[in-house]
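1st attempt posting a full record on here, be nice pls
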Amino acid sequence: MEESEEEIREEIIRTPRKICMAYVQNKEIVSLRTALLAIEKGFQSHTNLSRPYYTHSGILNGDVTDLVRAIVRKENVEAFQVTSASTMTDLHYWLIDNYKFHVNVKHIPHNQRYGYNITGSYHEGVNGVLKGYDFKSFETHEEAFDDGLYEALKLIPNQE
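the predicted structure (as tokens):
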């Protein structure tokens, strides 16, 4: 027995993680700008030097000898702090669990580009499109997904 389009749509609304899994194909690292905005919006990711991180100069898993040197010398380490580089998957689940925001990536075959839209609950459980498909010139799924995560984070009101 084949399900109708309406039944499929209702099932997707009831089970948001199914939507997420359709678009999350790997565990790529978010960009530095997305990582910084995620932290500003309250996302907590464990930072240590055995996990992906950005150095104070914005290099992924880069040299942290300045940080180690400052710790050993008991100097101010604020200028040398590292920023956790979360995976896109972890950040996406956090957006779903906390804000009901879904970043959906779509491939356009005729021009070999990717785009995204952001859907979610915006008023007492009413679901809808929060940001329509944006087909900039994303050449990879990961570029579009990272930009979609960044834009979804911008929809979160600033913490006071």
